[in-house]
């Protein structure tokens, strides 16, 4: 599973976003997700990937691609889980 | 502005109860007179592992998955009940004057399920893993706040907390907002969904709950000699209230009228009702005075009737002394259990339906009436009765009493 696939899964499990609504270019605004949702998403990503995401990092996310890039910048690729 | 005895019109109803989802289903359920309490797997490990849960409530299907996951169940139930009530009233929120539409809901507990889930996460994973949705999903006022968002109801918006009287208190406060001229329409009612292991354990430790866990369907048995406590339930009920002239002006026939509201405090004990019934009696008299009716005008009472040993005998005596012996009495809690902050609202709705249809639902599981209770309890089957004026009692822990008077339209 790629980082992107796992991000889509987190968006679905934690935030109820249908997978078919998501592409790498999709913005969180387009998904009607607010700042509370982004914190929830970050908690899901922390749990799934075992990384730490700061509040500033979470608030700076604009698109699904941003989230993937952030996670990849923390050294994550194709996963162990 | 209207004068102090003017009734307001009940133009819409919405119900979500363990007797059914929707007003018709709930009404059919209480008329059937069968207890809805069941063994509740969510309460595994609690000494009282039964409840009156709303089966088949599919929040994802009814509200959409994205919306429903941001709402605790007590808000989900309220939204579904309110949607039905608004449609039933023939109102279109797209076109109403939002700042003139109020929302007053009662709620005793709030987001108990969310609180318990997040507390588990707090203990197991740490403070920084707690969901940012904890507080917005927990606070009881979110039930009213969500209806403001849902319907563009932008007038006064609040939640009343008088424990098991919350729903009735909300309807009384809503009536006052119409009488004062602060609102033209109020969505009024109550909601509760606190069937969680921690809260039920708390009620069990108080000794408030029936222990008849081996036979849940007959555990809630108001006024019966074998009653031993209430069965906790969940529900939401919403009434649409308008001034009579406004309902008439738009050609909407009311289901019934809300003619009186009275409230009082026992000032006696944190959980036990005042055994002399003086607090309850004051609320009943205040509601009668408010309605301009005489006690003898009341021919039906939807009792608080929790199925606890203390409440039912004290309440029956008080009904007898304040209202008299002419009134038929029922407790719909035999069917629905005790839905706490929603109870006063769903019972107000059942009182409206009884007046509208001339039909009194039976008190479920009343096999052998407590000989100390000598009022006319309706049991076994619905009773056909033309009702001009009825009363609905609600009494909360903390000694908070709220009584409503409903009259025929």
Describe what this molecule looks like in 3D.
The complex is a heterodimer of chains A (81) and B (409). Chain A has 81 residues and is an all-alpha fold. Chain A has a single domain (3-73), classed as Non-ribosomal Peptide Synthetase Peptidyl Carrier Protein, Chain A (Orthogonal Bundle). Chain A has four helices and no strands. In chain A, helix 1 packs across helix 2 (35-49) and helix 1 (3-15) crosses helix 4 (64-73). In chain B, strands 1, 2, 5, 6, 7, 8, 9, 10, 11, 13, 15 and 16 form a twelve-stranded mixed sheet that branches. A two-stranded antiparallel sheet of chain B has the order 3-4. In chain B, strands 12-14 form a two-stranded antiparallel ribbon. The longest helix of chain B has 16 residues, at 73-88. Chains A and B meet through helix 2 of A and helix 3 of B.
Give me some keywords for this one.
heterodimer, A: 81 residues, mainly alpha, Non-ribosomal Peptide Synthetase Peptidyl Carrier Protein, Chain A, 4 helices, B: 409 residues, alpha/beta, 12-stranded mixed β-sheet, two-stranded antiparallel sheet, 14 helices, 16 strands, 34% helix
Run of helices and strands of chain A: HHHH
Number of helices of chain A: 4
- Proportion in β-strands of chain B: 15-25%
Unreliable runs of chain A, pLDDT <50, ≥5 residues? none
Order of helices and strands of chain B: EEHEEHHHEHHHEHEHEHEHEHEHHEEEEE
The percent range for helix content of chain A is: 40-55%
CATH class of chain A: Mainly Alpha
Report the sheet-strand fraction of chain A: under 5%
């Amino acid at each position: 599973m790629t980082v992107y696939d796992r991000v889509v899964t987190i968006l679905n499990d934690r935030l109820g976003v249908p997978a078919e609504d998501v592409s790498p270019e999709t913005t969180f605004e387009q998904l009607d997700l607010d700042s509370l949702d982004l914190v929830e998403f970050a908690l899901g990503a922390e749990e799934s990937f075992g990384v730490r995401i700061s509040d500033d990092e979470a608030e700076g996310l604009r698109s699904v691609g941003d989230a993937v890039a952030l996670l990849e910048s923390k050294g994550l690729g194709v996963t162990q889980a | 502005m209207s004068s102090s005895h003017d009734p307001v019109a009940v133009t819409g109803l919405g119900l979500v109860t363990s007797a059914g989802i929707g007003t018709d289903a709930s009404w059919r359920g209480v008329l059937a007179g069968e207890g809805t309490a069941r063994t509740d797997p969510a309460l595994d490990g609690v000494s009282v592992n039964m409840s009156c849960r709303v089966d088949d409530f599919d929040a994802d299907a009814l509200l959409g998955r994205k919306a429903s996951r941001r709402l605790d169940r007590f808000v989900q139930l309220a939204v579904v009940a309110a949607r039905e009530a608004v449609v039933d009233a023939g109102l279109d929120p797209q076109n109403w004057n939002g700042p003139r539409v109020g929302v007053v809901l009662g709620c005793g507990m709030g987001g108990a399920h969310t609180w318990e889930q997040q507390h588990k996460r707090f203990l197991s994973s740490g403070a920084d893993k707690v969901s940012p949705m904890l507080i917005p999903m927990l606070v009881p006022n979110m039930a009213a706040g969500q209806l403001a968002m849902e319907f563009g109801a932008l007038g006064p918006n609040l939640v009343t907390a008088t424990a098991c009287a919350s729903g009735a208190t909300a309807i009384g406060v809503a009536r006052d907002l119409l009488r004062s001229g602060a609102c033209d329409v109020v969505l009024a009612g109550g909601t509760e969904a606190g069937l969680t292991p921690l809260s039920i354990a708390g009620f069990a430790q108080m000794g408030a709950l029936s222990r008849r866990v081996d036979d849940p369907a007959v555990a809630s048995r108001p006024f019966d000699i074998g009653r031993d406590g209430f069965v906790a339930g969940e529900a939401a009920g919403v009434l649409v209230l308008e001034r009579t002239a406004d309902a008439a002006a738009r050609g909407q026939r009311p289901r019934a009228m809300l003619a009186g509201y009275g409230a009082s405090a026992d000032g006696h004990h944190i959980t036990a009702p005042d055994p002399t019934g003086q607090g309850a009696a004051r609320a009943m008299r205040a509601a009668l005075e408010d309605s301009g009716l005489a006690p003898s005008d009341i021919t039906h009472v939807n009792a608080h009737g929790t199925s606890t040993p203390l409440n039912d005998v004290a309440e029956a005596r008080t009904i007898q002394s304040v209202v008299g012996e002419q009134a038929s009495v029922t407790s719909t809690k035999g069917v629905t259990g005790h839905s706490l902050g929603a109870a006063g609202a769903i019972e107000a709705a059942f009182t409206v339906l009884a007046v509208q249809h001339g039909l009194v639902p039976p008190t479920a599981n009343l096999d052998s009436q407590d000989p100390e209770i000598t009022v006319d309890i309706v049991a076994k089957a619905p009773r056909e009765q033309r009702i001009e004026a009825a009363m609905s009692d609600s009494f909360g822990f903390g000694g908070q009493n709220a009584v409503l008077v409903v009259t025929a339209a």
